[in-house]
Amino acid sequence: KGGRGRNKRGAHIVMLFFVNQGGIWS
């Protein structure tokens, strides 16, 4: 846990992607 504003965009995209994958793969 180091980059707050730096990993904010990436984390957002990754989270959305993960949620999308989980919903589709469910």
Task: Write structural notes for this entry.
The chain is mainly α and 26 residues long. The chain has one domain (1-26). The protein contains one helix and no strands. The chain is rod-shaped, with a radius of gyration of 11 Å.
Quick overview of this protein structure:
This protein is mostly helical and 26 residues long.
Structural class from helices and strands? mainly alpha
> Number of helix segments?
1
Report the count of strand segments.
0
- Please state the average pLDDT score: 71
User: What is the domain tally?
Assistant: 1
Helix content: over 70%
Cα-based radius of gyration, to the nearest Å: 11 Å
Order of helix and strand elements from N to C terminus: H
| Proportion of residues in β-strands | under 5%
Shape: rod-shaped
Biggest sheet statistics:
none
Q: Span from first to last CA?
A: 29 Å
Low-confidence stretches: none
Task: Break the fold down into its secondary structure elements and pairings.
Elements: H1 6-25
